[in-house]
Amino acid sequence: MPLTYSRYLKLEELLALQTPASDPPEHDETLFIVIHQVYELWFKLLLHELEKVKRDYSSGDLFGTIATWKRIRMVLKTLVAQIDVLETMTPMSFLTFRDRLDTASGFQSTQFREVEFVIGHRRAGMLQHYPAGDAGAERLRERLTQRSLYDHFYDFLEGRGVPIPPALRARDRALPTEPNADIQEALLRLYHGAPDVAILLELMTDFDEGLQEWRYRHVKLVERTIGAKKGTGGSPGVEFLKQSLFKPLFPDLWAIRHRM
Ligand code: HEM
After folding, report:
1. What secondary structure does DSSP assign to 15-39, as a single string?
2. Measured in angstroms, how far is the CA atom of residue 65 from the centroid of ligand 1?
3. Best substitution site from 241, 242, 245, 247 to test ligand 1's pocket, by max atoms within 8 Å of Cβ?
4. What residues contact residue 41 under an 8 Å CB cut-off, 6+ apart?
5. Phi and psi at residue 92, in whole multiples of 5°?
6. Residues with Cβ within 8 Å of residue 187, at least 6 apart in sequence
7. What is the pLDDT confidence band of residue 67, given thresholds at 50, 70 and 90?
């Protein structure tokens, strides 16, 4: 039997996965489920592409990494734009099924946390929110001590003649990426002397700014939907989310902007 679109994509299985918890089903719960599942699929792709960036950095493949960052950047723009769709749901409509979420929250998205950990935005304390034995929690635990994308970026810089301070190579991998003055000097030199690498550095800055943009749009979505209420995940809600705004993933890239 020739392969069909539906069997190739396992559509029967995929389309059976949107099951509202409200009974009878509240109209907007379908939107809520679909949008979160779509986010998780994009997170899956992001993780796949970020793994490629790591390999490209370590093998010194500048054009390979530029092509992949361009794709990642467009995925992120799509993630930000999708918030517009969810913002068509009013607070009243969300309230018709919010209690069915119980303690479930996007805060528990292991793939989102994996994206942060892969890039180098690591906080070991986050692991306590993911129960041991959970498949996602095990992956997250492994990611915490794997070399981050930024560690692989050091390999790329080394291939371009940048000496990497031994302290950066030996650092505790469970900690977030540290800004470093020597790396910043090297990045400035590359911006001025290597226009091809400058394109890559700008794409990394785009990604960093894009994730901060997602955080901002998510906080505003939360504020307009639940105001000052606590989150289903147990946090104070908007005030908690505001703390992560404006935190760069690649601090070295931001520290040099005024010196260009
Ligand atoms: C009506 C829509 C939404 C509301 C009211 C909402 C609310 C919240 C709240 C209050 C938190 C803080 C943790 C808590 O106490 O629960 C949170 C965290 C989070 N949400 Fe949402 N959210 C919404 C939609 C989304 C969507 C569509 C996504 C996409 C996957 C998402 C992903 C996340 C993530 C990843 C976090 C953790 C952020 C971090 O720790 O930096 N949320 N959300």
Report:
1. HT----SSSSPPHHHHHHHHHHHHH
2. 30
3. 241
4. none
5. -65, -40
6. 201, 252, 253, 256
7. very high
| Rounded Cα distance, 147 and 248, in Å | 19
- Point out the ligand 1 atom lying closest to the alpha carbon of residue 240: 12
Tell the residue number behind the tokens 């292991």, with chain if given: 110
Burial class (CB in 10 A: 0-12, 13-18, 19+), 148: buried
Identify the three-state secondary structure at position 160.
coil
Q: How far is CA 71 from CA 44, 120, 217, in A?
A: 14, 20, 21
Question: What is the chain's mean pLDDT, rounded?
Answer: 97
Which residues form ligand 1's pocket by a CB distance below 6 Å? 35-36, 39, 86, 94, 105-107, 109, 112, 218, 221-222, 225-226, 231-235, 237, 240-241, 244
Phi, psi torsion values for 10, nearest 5 degrees: 50, 45
pLDDT tens across 81-113, in order? 999 999 999 999 999 999 999 999 999 999 999
Nearest CA to ligand 1 atom 2: 222
Instruction: Give residue-wise pLDDT tens across range 129-153.
Output: 887 788 889 999 999 999 999 999 9
Confidence of residue 229 (pLDDT cuts 50, 70, 90): very high
Closest residue CA from atom 32 of ligand 1: 106
The rounded percent of the chain whose pLDDT value lies above 90 is 96
Atom of ligand 1 nearest to the CA of 109: 35
